[in-house]
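Could you help me review a protein record that somebody else here produced? Do not assume that whoever made the record got everything right. The record follows directly below this note.
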Amino acid sequence: MSKTKVIAFANNKGGSGKTTTASNVGCAMAKLGKKVLLIDADMQMNLTLSLFDEERALGFAESGKNLYTAVKEERELSEFIVNTDYEGLDIVPSTPLMSSVEFDLFTKWQREFILKKILAPTVALGYYDFVLIDAPPTLGGWVMNVMCASDFVIIPVEASPWGLFGLANMFDFINQVKSIAPRLEVMGIAITKADERKNYFKQTVEALKDGDVARLFGTYIRVDSAIEWSQDNSRPVVAYKKYSRSAIEYTKLAKEIIEYADR
């Protein structure tokens, strides 16, 4: 029985492509034969909406079959897992009520480890090869929870003039988390929304390489209209248009992640 690897996708800057990366990497991993559990830890519910239409997503939010209920009541996460339309890919949905999770955590004992505790039985079972957590674009107690529950963190960074904004704060925060969760490892930075014709793409890559803050994944996710069309249809692009440029790139990135995690 293989050990389940838990990976957080996090960036305190919005618009980094974090949720799209988590969704498509997860779906690509499933297509590669891995069993994957996605956890939507963001009140915006975009990860849930990348796999279900709005009616079904809101149904999970209203029924209590979601992450917020699990965290607030400290119940095993396995009770809240929902099957998707894709073989080998499951999800714990989110809800707008996640906006108050920081308040609910405040009075809990060892509050930084609540998610780790309720996820632990699922990890121990070893059924899933990977658990991928989509963190909200903030730095606080809930994101600390997400990272404390994870083995690795991947930081998607948009190749834009503002893409690197706040990245130093992100690494300062990760270092704080490692003081209580020393096993957490930054797996790497994944460059998204790349346009190799633009100077700022080269500037982003050079700045990240010169800064030597973390390794860069070899696969860049380039700008592709297929991603927007897939989002409009509540499907990952690797399933919606599997021969598109972005689908091929997300699959390559998924292979990179699997190889690194299994090293």
In short: The radius of gyration is 17 Å.
